[in-house]
From TrEMBL:
The gene is fdhF. It is found in: Membrane. The chain holds residues 216 to 899 of 900 of the full protein. It comes from Lawsonibacter faecis. GO terms for molecular function: 2 iron, 2 sulfur cluster binding; 4 iron, 4 sulfur cluster binding; formate dehydrogenase (NAD+) activity; metal ion binding; molybdopterin cofactor binding; NADH dehydrogenase (ubiquinone) activity; NADH dehydrogenase activity. The keyword Protease does not apply. This is Formate dehydrogenase subunit alpha. Its cofactor is [4Fe-4S] cluster; [2Fe-2S] cluster. GO terms for biological process: ATP synthesis coupled electron transport; formate metabolic process. Belongs to the complex I 75 kDa subunit family. One of its GO terms (cellular component) is membrane. Residues 6-62 form the 4Fe-4S Mo/W bis-MGD-type domain.
Amino acid sequence: FRPWEVKRVRTTCPHCAVGCQYDLLVKENRIVGVDAAPGSPTNEGLLCVKGRFGSYQFVHSGDRLRHPLIKENGAFRRASWDEALDLVASRMKGIQEQYGRDSVGGFSCSRATNEDNYAFQKLMRAGLGTNNVDNCARVCHSASVHGLATTLGSGAMTNPMADITEDVDVILLVGSNPTEAHPVMGARIRRAVRRGTKLIVVDPRKIDLTEGCALHLQIKPGTNVAFANGMLNVILSEGLEDRDFIQNRTEGFEALREIVAEYTPERVGEICHIDPDGLRAAARMYAAARKAPIIYCLGVTEHSTGTEGVMALSNLAMAVGKLGRSGCGVNPLRGQNNVQGACDMGALPYQYPGYQKVTDPAVREKFEKAWGLPLSPNDGLTSTEMLALSARGERIHGLFIFGEDPMVSDPDTAHVRRALENLDFLVVDELFMTETAQLADVVLPGVSYAEKEGTFTNTERRQMRVRKAVSLEGEMRQDYDIFAEVETRLGHPCRYESAAAIYDEIASLTPSFGGLSHARLDAGEDLAWPCPAKDHPGTPILHVGKFARGLGWFYPARYRPSAELPDGDYPLMMVTGRMLYHYNTRAMTGRAEGICQVVNESYIEISSRDAAALGVAHGDRVKVSSRRGELETTARVGDKVGDGEVFMTFHFPDGNVNKVTNAVTDDIAHIPEYKVCAVRVSKL
Ligand code: SF4
């Protein structure tokens, strides 16, 4: 194309939560390319391979769903909107009449806009009268939401990306592989290291950033709490703590001090399989630094002790006074582009938008007044609880899944299939006929980010505009219109004028969003919540001067081993993660030809020693089995994983690691333990 022939539409990348800004290049209602936005604070003109090549071909893919579908006698047939929406409303209502109000639930979409997420949770709460609504944060960062809210008062990243990668002395990177999962953030960290920042990598695998780091603590998977307590043990025994900060800004320190005394470097060395002197060096480096952020990701959260792992890290930061100021903090890198926003918008079973509790009578009264009907006073169920109940044939009989594909993304695929097949009724709103959509009774065609107006909230709580670049084809409808139509058919009339009007409704009900509007964002303002008033500049750094909960709380965290450890039958420990080229279930990147030419099949990383013992060579096909299932994939032999450990991604339906992962969850946030399960590998 010739540059003057294309229209440029500034929007936000739909993949990871860095939230890179770019222009979609549009010619004759088709996206023909992507150009990074120069000078954007999130990406400074950078884009990764997913943003540049994997974020537009899927929009025009020939297999996009374009009409409602109803399953009859095991096969889908095209249906009119009225027919499909009437059926959704009547079946959901019928199930509630038979089994009770809370026999239905909904999974909202962490890739959809704030406005769509708000409309979806409102459909569940006002239309169906249940708080059984959740989003995929449940399976990635719910441990952060619960953990940081408990100890600090807010479950979000404390500092902006630029603030924790520029002019900082030390970065403590725990269970995070940003060059693959958040590539532009990875580039920022790499640049910081080049400029002299000392990087401590705490990760069971060798990752790209291990090269050039000051220290790599290759801890055994599932030992994060022991690691953090060990760091604290060194800090307290050497008097490196910030006594003023502990005294003036926190509570619960003495109880934690007693526990931490048990975690000597030698004991932690044994638990974590690391050198005690390495732990001592890391603790001294982190404590002594003027500016030292903790950055972490799913290697901390996706464990049966995930929430405690998060709280152990906030203990560490509080003990050295590295919170509430520039260049520090506890910083979860959120995974999906709008997983922060899906949580902010109340697609959670315990909270309305803005983390306002559904059990708080004053809050509930506010929403009842605004929405004009009584609301459920009870906490709802998490997505993992809903699936577990349905798999056992208990309590949950109807589900509405918006833009999620748990058949690929959730642990223990056989368990997910059982749960979805047990339902009396499943409706799925999706872009494509995914593995989950194939099991549905009604499939509604969803709308991609390039066809809608709205906002995403990136990992820094920053509000990012999403703009419509191409118009919807045929009879397709905006997702929030679909939800409003179902809500209306359920007896609660609902209609939205526009995405901007929904954002205004959100602002009117959500104190932390009170000053936000599309108009302010379109005028070029750079705003991170909390932003309570129209003249408020937003809050890039949380907990300055005072924690959101008042005093920060030291949680008394004790190490417990993972739920399933290797044994004679399943002797290897499986660790899961992401790769650079593909994004989650591959619905988007799997339709980008160039990306698929680079990599389009699964693999398993195995150490040279383990491979030799099994008679497996690099490139061999192998079978991987666990107590839950088995898969076939290709071996990559090398030194990225330690002996006794193997690694796979979950991007590929064939060879999807979730056939073998464990659906056991943490007791607090109900997040599954994707990161550790026991497997056997054999040559095919
Ligand atoms: Fe940026 Fe993430 Fe998109 Fe890559 S995938 S361009 S890092 S937002």
